[in-house]
């Protein structure tokens, strides 16, 4: 799996998350290294740094500034799959690493 040049939007998220269908993620990949920028909805600007394994699973850390001016950080494990209609999605299990340290889950889909 190569994520280079792919764009995603959030299609589901738990209530404690900040990404939404207004948040666009722009992925870049060089070998196993993954980077991304994201913004939209409650997020002013964010960045991802991660690594991709042979199955396309991603382990990443993320940081962003939300619309309230807060810096938020977290970590995430993403697993790719294809919907019945053939769309690429990432099923994500994440945790904030600042603030309340809560866990959540989300899915993003390629656009």
Description:
The protein is mainly β and 111 residues long. It has one domain. Helices cover 0% and strands 63% of the residues. The chain has strands at 7-13, 24-30, 33-40, 43-52, 58-66, 71-82, 88-96, 103-110. The mean pLDDT is 97.
Secondary-structure blueprint:
Layout: E1 7-13, E2 24-30, E3 33-40, E4 43-52, E5 58-66, E6 71-82, E7 88-96, E8 103-110
Find the structural class using helix and strand composition: mainly beta
- Low-pLDDT parts are none
Radius of gyration: 13 Å
Helix count equals 0
Distance between the termini: 16 Å
| Order of SSEs | EEEEEEEE
Strand order in the largest sheet? 1-2-3-4-5-6-7-8
How many individual β-strands? 8
Largest sheet features: 8 strands, antiparallel, barrel
Q: What overall form do the CA principal axes indicate? A: globular
Into which percentage range does the β-strand content fall?
over 45%
Q: Please state the average pLDDT score.
A: 97
What is the count of distinct domains?
Answer: 1
